[in-house]
């Protein structure tokens, strides 16, 4: 039994983790689960994974998965855990997990930020648990209810092996220009709205004045 992973589109905002699993056999009464430990710099879209269930398996996401926050605003610095429970055990199994990168904090002297991701690992979850009882901070509160389950990992995974992607970083100079430009646009729009209201009020007053003159005539 073997598992191999690599990154596709590693320099884009929407890379993918490609994983291939070769099975030697199947554990009876157990579920095959793939585990992804993602840093806070990247995230998955749970709704997208739900739509892809027929291709990647049933997904459970724990931890940070807010779709809008930049890296400096995330509430869970430990990132997230993604579990994919496989329903199709035909070997080899090929999974493409779409991930998304968060906007990094702007910098003055770099265009890209290197982000490392632990390679995913897989194994058999035996018991009544809906997810593997692995020892991870984000899963400890949930695993207390599944003490009778056990996880049999695929043995060839190197826990020190990592995947690396390059995330584009905005420039601090550009940030200042964007702030100034946004401020100017807000002022101009506010002035245009105020002018439109003033013109509308004047027209209404002229219309009312004409109406009064006609009545007096």
TrEMBL record:
Membrane topology: Single-pass membrane protein
Ranges annotated as spanning the membrane: 177-198
One cellular-component annotation, GO: endoplasmic reticulum membrane
Cell membrane as UniProt keyword: no
Pfam family, one: PIG-X
UniProt keyword annotations, A-Z: Endoplasmic reticulum, Glycoprotein, GPI-anchor biosynthesis, Membrane, Transmembrane, Transmembrane helix
Pathway: Glycolipid biosynthesis; glycosylphosphatidylinositol-anchor biosynthesis
Residue stretches in coiled coil: none
Keyword NAD: no
Subcellular location: Endoplasmic reticulum membrane
Any one GO biological process: GPI anchor biosynthetic process
UniProt family annotation: Belongs to the PIGX family.
Function field: Required for proper folding and/or the stability of a subset of proteins in the endoplasmic reticulum. Component of glycosylphosphatidylinositol-mannosyltransferase 1 which transfers the first of the 4 mannoses in the GPI-anchor precursors during GPI-anchor biosynthesis. Probably acts by stabilizing the mannosyltransferase GPI14.
UniProt name for this protein: Protein PBN1
UniProt lineage: Eukaryota, Fungi, Fungi incertae sedis, Mucoromycota, Mucoromycotina
């Amino acid at each position: 039994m073997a598992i191999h992973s690599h990154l596709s589109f590693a320099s884009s905002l929407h890379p993918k983790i490609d994983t291939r699993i070769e099975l030697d056999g199947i554990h009876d009464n157990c579920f095959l689960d793939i585990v992804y430990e993602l840093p806070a710099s990247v995230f998955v879209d749970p709704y997208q994974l739900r739509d892809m269930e027929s291709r990647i398996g049933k997904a459970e996401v724990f931890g940070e998965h807010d779709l809008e926050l930049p890296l400096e605003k995330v509430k869970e610095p430990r990132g997230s855990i993604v579990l994919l429970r496989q329903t199709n055990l035909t070997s080899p199994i090929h999974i493409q997990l779409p991930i998304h990168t968060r906007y990094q904090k702007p910098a003055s002297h770099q265009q890209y930020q290197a982000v490392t991701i632990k390679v995913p690992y897989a194994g058999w979850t035996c018991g009544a648990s809906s997810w593997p009882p692995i020892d991870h901070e984000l899963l400890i509160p949930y695993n207390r209810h599944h003490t009778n389950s056990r996880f049999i990992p695929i043995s060839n995974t190197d826990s020190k092996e990592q995947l690396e992607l390059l995330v584009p970083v905005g420039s601090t100079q550009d940030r200042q220009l964007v702030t100034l430009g946004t401020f100017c646009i807000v002022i101009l729009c506010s002035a245009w709205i105020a002018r439109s209201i003033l013109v509308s009020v004047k027209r209404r007053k002229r219309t009312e004045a004409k109406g009064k003159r006609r009545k007096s005539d």
